[in-house]
Specification:
7-stranded antiparallel beta sheet; 4 helices; alpha+beta; Alpha-D-Glucose-1,6-Bisphosphate, Chain A, domain 4
Length: 175
């Protein structure tokens, strides 16, 4: 899929928006309308290396699971997430959030995403399933929800957690 670029302006300082986006556990809040069944890939959900796995709501797509990992986190201006999806996780994805100051206490968030299918069959499936149209609709709504959540100051629900429960002895696991 060719790069898809969307943007919105949020009436919050850039540092606050960055802190929210750098925590992968928050991403379910604003994108759970098109990405469901979120699970963290490690206990620490913040910063470089943090990641999550999710399922895309997509009709006719048998291989709808995907994941993202924060590959580059440059406070307070850039977050780059690499990921994989599709059959055997062979379709690579790259998503970028660029944060720019847009006046006093306002932040312009530019989101760019693209996917790189490995095989011609993956490319054909992207065209047949109209992935670009679905991704545009999904991410436009996600950015709108991100803006609403941050400007209202209210989270929408439970945060994403690690699948399977506690991993560390001090985190509540009982023998």
């Amino acid at each position: 899929m060719e790069p898809l670029t969307l943007s919105t302006t949020i009436a919050k300082p850039r540092e606050e928006v960055f802190e929210y986006l750098a925590d992968v556990a928050n991403h379910e809040e604003f994108s759970d309308h098109c990405m469901v069944d979120w699970h963290l890939t490690r206990e620490d959900s913040y910063g470089h290396g943090a990641g999550a796995r999710f399922r895309l709501k997509s009709r006719f797509d048998r291989f709808s699971y995907g994941d993202i990992t924060l590959a580059q986190v440059t406070p307070p201006e850039l977050i780059v997430a690499s990921g994989r999806g599709g059959r055997f996780n062979r379709i690579r994805t790259l998503s970028t959030w660029t944060l720019e100051e847009d006046g006093a206490g306002r932040t312009k968030v530019t989101f760019e995403t693209q996917s790189t299918p490995v095989l011609k069959s993956d490319e054909l499936m992207e065209k047949l399933l109209r992935v670009r149209v679905a991704a545009t609709r999904c991410h436009e709504r996600a950015l709108e929800r991100l803006r609403t959540i941050l400007e209202s100051g209210e989270g929408r629900g439970e945060r994403t957690t690690v699948a399977g429960g506690a991993r560390k002895p001090a985190s509540g696991f009982r023998l």
